[in-house]
Amino acid sequence: LHTLRFTVRFMLCVCVGDGTMNASPSLTSFYGRFRHFLDIIDPRTLFVTESRLKEAVQLLEDYKHGTLPPGVTNKELWGAQKIKQAIIHPDTNETIFMPFRMSGMKLFFLLQVVGLLLPNQTLASTVFWQWLNQSHNACVNYANRNATKPSPTSKFIQGYLGAVISAVSIAVGLNVLVQRANKFTPATRLLIQRFVPFPAVASANICNVVLMRHTELEEGIDVLDNNGNIVGSSRIAAKHALLETALTRVVLPMPILVLPPIIMSILEKTSLLRSRPRMILPVQSLVCLAAFGLALPLAISLFPQMSEIETSRLEPEIAMATTSKTVVYNKGL
């Protein structure tokens, strides 16, 4: 019971926020980015109304142009910035559809994670949960991509089909190999089945990111100088952006699909769950939610969203087009 109470408190802290992040953290350090994204992915921003969003955007515009109404506090400005960054895409300035925002991943991904960790899955259930997981991932990757270049619907459909088919194939293949490993005891096979989702999801996530954002590799992404002016379109920067995003997708499922099986293997031996087997799934859901609440900000904090790269490492025409030693680009989330 003490462990469950601690888990509840921890889940509320990482999944809802503690309300103390009113000052802007430094985004040059991992800890600063972690605090920043922990605030941005606050699921309470999902319930911000359209009128409140417009108010927040207008408040930031007034601040930018020096026309702030009297009495506006720093806390209100940071609150407006939090709302805008959680809802508005930085490249298109359009509203991101709620299920595909980073602040919505905790709620919409919870069901998928619990399904992926269910023991004794059939081939049909494995295909279903992997399809659901990778379909959501594909839409999140697309909604939070670098959108400096227009992408036609046909490219999205091609990327989606390729991402989902490859991801599901990897996951099903690994699960079939485990199920056919007759040399393992039932207990060992069950333990392996619990850990199979991690390499399956991690490798599938890489395919998902690359296929959903492959147009960036073909057309390049905009890079900006220190004054925010577009210097050019770089394929090299696009490669860096996709590599960094792919690495975050490898780290993201690690705490979610590795920690819950370990914790549950311990909790299932307690007298509480032995005498109440119906509580196993709710407890597992709680553990998964806490793990995901920690994993998401940790993963997306690995690299800055606005990444920096030396101009000498980019295409010669871009290096010659600016005097800045470094340029920045939106790597996406």
UniProtKB/TrEMBL annotation:
<keyword id="KW-0029">Amino-acid transport</keyword>
<dbReference type="GO" id="GO:0015137">
    <property type="term" value="F:citrate transmembrane transporter activity"/>
</dbReference>
<keyword id="KW-1133">Transmembrane helix</keyword>
<dbReference type="GO" id="GO:0015075">
    <property type="term" value="F:monoatomic ion transmembrane transporter activity"/>
</dbReference>
<dbReference type="GO" id="GO:1990542">
    <property type="term" value="P:mitochondrial transmembrane transport"/>
</dbReference>
<dbReference type="InterPro" id="IPR004686">
    <property type="entry name" value="Mtc"/>
</dbReference>
<dbReference type="Pfam" id="PF03820">
    <property type="entry name" value="SFXNs"/>
</dbReference>
<dbReference type="GO" id="GO:0006865">
    <property type="term" value="P:amino acid transport"/>
</dbReference>
<feature type="transmembrane region" description="Helical">
    <location>
        <begin position="250"/>
        <end position="267"/>
    </location>
</feature>
<keyword id="KW-0813">Transport</keyword>
<dbReference type="GO" id="GO:0005743">
    <property type="term" value="C:mitochondrial inner membrane"/>
</dbReference>
<feature type="transmembrane region" description="Helical">
    <location>
        <begin position="279"/>
        <end position="303"/>
    </location>
</feature>
<keyword id="KW-0812">Transmembrane</keyword>
<feature type="signal peptide">
    <location>
        <begin position="1"/>
        <end position="19"/>
    </location>
</feature>
<keyword id="KW-0472">Membrane</keyword>
<feature type="transmembrane region" description="Helical">
    <location>
        <begin position="157"/>
        <end position="178"/>
    </location>
</feature>
<protein>
    <recommendedName>
        <fullName>Sidoreflexin</fullName>
    </recommendedName>
</protein>
<comment type="similarity">
    <text>Belongs to the sideroflexin family.</text>
</comment>
<keyword id="KW-0732">Signal</keyword>
<feature type="transmembrane region" description="Helical">
    <location>
        <begin position="107"/>
        <end position="132"/>
    </location>
</feature>
<keyword id="KW-0496">Mitochondrion</keyword>
<feature type="transmembrane region" description="Helical">
    <location>
        <begin position="190"/>
        <end position="211"/>
    </location>
</feature>
